[in-house]
Amino acid sequence: MDVWVTYSKRKSLCPYCNSYVTAGNPVLITQQYNKGPGGKRFRSRKYWHPNCWLDNAMYKLSQNTYPGRPGRPRMLQLSPEDSAKRLAILRKRARCIQRLKIAIKNGSVDTIIRLSEAIENTKEEIKPYGGVPKSWERLKS
Ligand SMILES: [Zn+2]
Q: Is the confidence at residue 110, as pLDDT, over 90?
């Protein structure tokens, strides 16, 4: 659909408010090509009061809810500093888990105990920075 605004050269009926847009006043024109019988395209134009077109558009928009931004919604509202601290703790834990897996494979009991404690401690560490992630509760190290 094409939309433009100009000065009206003639009197035309606004489809929104059913009163006339008179010559010399701003008019908003919408133009659309429709397929008629036999595949022939024909042009249809409407002449609106600019505000009426906008009112109509806003009304139609209000019939649908805003779909929101794409992707996963952000659950946490953290300052950049806190966000960085949270990320550091997440990484530290990931590192510990990685090393724990190796320790388990090697049967290094002391290391397993030490890392298990370190992993457990990250729960306390992360609490002030947006809380413990749900996935941590499920994780069996
Ligand atoms: Zn109007």
A: yes
